[in-house]
Design goal:
Blueprint lengths: L8 E6 L4 H13 L4 E5 L3 H7 L6 H6 L1 E3 L2 H4 L3 E7 L11 E3 L4 H8 L3 E6 L8 H4 L4 E4 L11 H13 L15 H17 L8 H14 L4 H25 L1
Parallel strand pairs: 1-2, 1-6, 2-3, 4-6, 4-7, 5-7
Helix pairs in contact: 1-2, 1-7, 8-9, 8-10
Length: 245
């Protein structure tokens, strides 16, 4: 009997190529009661081969394919990335795996949580991490910091099924990642209309806005209020622009 219910947890594999790794992750998910697997641009031949993995057919049969991380996590209220965190400058908060259980379970009570794993060769890219609220790492020896993908998934899921000893504080529901993306798009539109952004720096500004919205823990109510404000300001800017013309 598992200590925690992880049915609202989603595992996202980003650009995974090895069918054995995909199968191993799916088997670990079934071991720990996690059913929702999503793959972002998987190597198609590997995905087809992985579907025959022993003991993982139920998860793989229902697995979804997505063209981007944003699409894969759109309905998730908390997105947690995994990283070995060696020789990389990280722009998201980094927590030890043992610190993840309490906030993850607090959010599972509100809605879906995504746990992201990157490709076998490079892990999550900087752009992938922009969609994460924070990152976790598994404590390993410095001489061999990275783990096999299937092993890493199993360790993370096992840690999340353990009893939560820290008190879970009920908080107002976080906005879903999809809502944050819509709010970010509106903010970028406003910044462009107001002359804040420069075409050559629009991509870096968009990345900064995306990280900021996840860092400040925007709630459902916040997104509705902020989107209303931004739309009003956009209307004013465009109306004044017509008058000036």
């Amino acid at each position: 009997m598992l200590a925690s219910d992880l049915r609202q947890l989603t595992v996202v594999l980003v650009r995974t190529r090895n069918p054995l790794n995909i199968g191993a992750v799916a088997r670990a998910m079934q071991n720990f009661g996690v059913r929702d697997l999503r793959l972002v641009t998987p190597f198609e031949a590997s995905f087809r081969e992985a579907r025959s993995a022993v003991g993982a057919d139920a998860v793989l049969r229902e697995a979804g394919e997505f063209a981007s991380v944003a699409a894969a996590v759109g309905d998730c209220r908390l997105v947690v990335g995994t990283t070995a965190a060696r020789r990389r400058e990280l722009e998201q908060p980094l927590r030890g795996l043992e610190q993840a259980a309490a906030p993850v379970h607090a959010t599972l009570a509100e809605g879906r949580v995504a746990l992201l794993f990157g490709s076998e060769k490079h892990g999550l890219t900087r752009e992938d991490m922009e969609h994460c609220h924070w990152l976790v790492r598994i404590g390993t020896e410095d001489a061999q910091p990275s783990m096999n993908l299937g092993q890493a998934a199993a360790v993370c899921l096992w840690e999340l099924t353990r009893p939560v000893t820290s008190p879970v504080v009920e908080a107002e529901a976080r906005a879903s990642s999809g809502e944050l993306e819509r709010l970010g798009s509106l903010l970028m539109e406003l910044l462009g209309a107001g002359g804040y952004t420069h075409p050559g720096k629009a991509a870096s500004t968009e990345a900064e806005v995306r990280r900021m919205l996840r860092r400040v823990n925007v709630t459902d109510a916040d997104t509705h209020l902020l989107m209303g404000m931004v739309r009003k300001l956009l209307w004013k800017l465009r109306w004044n622009g017509k008058d000036a013309g």
